[in-house]
UniProtKB/TrEMBL annotation:
Record-stated family: Belongs to the sulfatase family.
Biological source species: Nocardioides jiangsuensis
Domain of life: Bacteria
Annotated Gene3D superfamilies: Alkaline Phosphatase, subunit A
Family annotation (SUPFAM superfamilies): Alkaline phosphatase-like
One Pfam family this sequence matches: Sulfatase
Protein name per Swiss-Prot or TrEMBL: Sulfatase
Keywords, ordered alphabetically: Glycoprotein, Hydrolase, Signal
Span of domain Sulfatase N-terminal: 37-367
Signal peptide: 1-23
Keyword Hydrolase: yes
InterPro entries reported for this sequence: Alkaline_phosphatase_core_sf (IPR017850), Sulfatase_CS (IPR024607), Sulfatase_N (IPR000917)
Amino acid sequence: MLTIIRGMVAAVLILAGTAAVTAAPSTTAQAAPAPQPNILLITTDDQSLSDLRWMPRTRRLLGEGGVTFPRSISPHPLCCPARAEILTGQFAQNSGVRHNRGPYGGYKVLKERNTLATWLDGAGYRTAYVGKFLNGYRAADGRVPGFDIWNPTIKNVYGYFDYTMFNNGRFKHYSTLHNADLVGQKTVEYIRQLSGRRPFFIWASQVAPHTSCATKETCWQPPLPARRHRNVLADAVSPSVTSPSFNEADVSDKPGYIQDLPLRDADDITYQFRQRIRSLQAVDASVADAVRALNEAGELANTVILFTSDNGFLLGEHRFYGKDVPYEEALQVPMLMRGPGIPRGVSRPQTVTTVDIAPTIADLANVRPGLTVDGRSMLPMAKSRSAPSYDTVLIQAGTSRQAELENDGWRYRGVRTARYTYVYFATAGTTELYDRRRDPNQLRNVSGDPRYAAIEAELTQRALLLGECAGSFCRQRFGPLPKPLAGR
């Protein structure tokens, strides 16, 4: 069936006005936009949605002070592709960045001369970057176009201590300053430096709570918190170890890579979890420092702050440790936004994605993107809970494995709706389908279940269509799905 449907994709893309697909609303900015605001984008690395519970200042200053999107997802839950989505507003089939490395991955694949940074820089924004950048970036690559201040980590990116920063070409090494503190301090410095007549854009890219990797021999260890946070949160319990999916007993319906996994040690997972949320304490403090610096500079009232993570993370759910898998713990990420014109203290029900960040910032800045973006501005949804959003989102993962490269660099592809998650692994020939309303922990793969046959067929078609999408077609609404048949 996949082959038959794939042959229909091109025709359906051309005839996008069919009854099954309705046009998405325009995402252009209003005719009379407000003066261009400053924009501060703060990102973490591998932060699960549930980790936000242990960041009280971030929740108070950005969540209570703005809008929270609890249904935000990273549709390509891996570092480099997600950051490419942020820079381009495009899914990986259009940005080209499908993995962290290999022929379809890494910084080398990014079209660096046409990104969010160049759009803003060309529109008069003063721009700065500090922290972790795309995988594969090297000091020899020099300043990335569009950034006036360029300060990514260039050596020991995952070390937390004993790392080197680009520092606008005057490399600087830090032995004892925790990386989250450095990123926070530089963010404050750049706020003070760039405040003035022209608006600014700062991307503060934190590495926490990613695992640490000081040397090849020590990869990948739990993250290292700042020294002042080494013993805090000693009684915190990981949501993963209390989840029904932790060390899932029967994984016979899961793909082979899950079936091959051993059971996880709960004590080790608890330690890993506590180190993760401890590493986030310095990030939480840096958010408060940035808000304070904006206020002292007289810029807070005219600054939009966005906070998110590149992807989520699993800690033993389905026996898995890591990301880049089609399970909710990897897909779900925090998304908070505060600033002028944005309501305070509200939570919105719409699905938003990492791909929406670039269009949102372009909308805020009244800047026309230099390429065709696949995402949509989140501003209408921030302002109204009835603003339209996705009913179906493309989710996918690339690969650098030789055996899988024959599938154009894809490991799995699929779609996610408010109720269902569907993916297919082309090389392995396996599929997964979860009814998250009945099975929120994704314990039962109902792919092949006759009761879900019509649903699976429709989701298969949507996955193939969106896998080829670009621009507004990626934002199409397909309409309601069939209902599962009654059980026997």
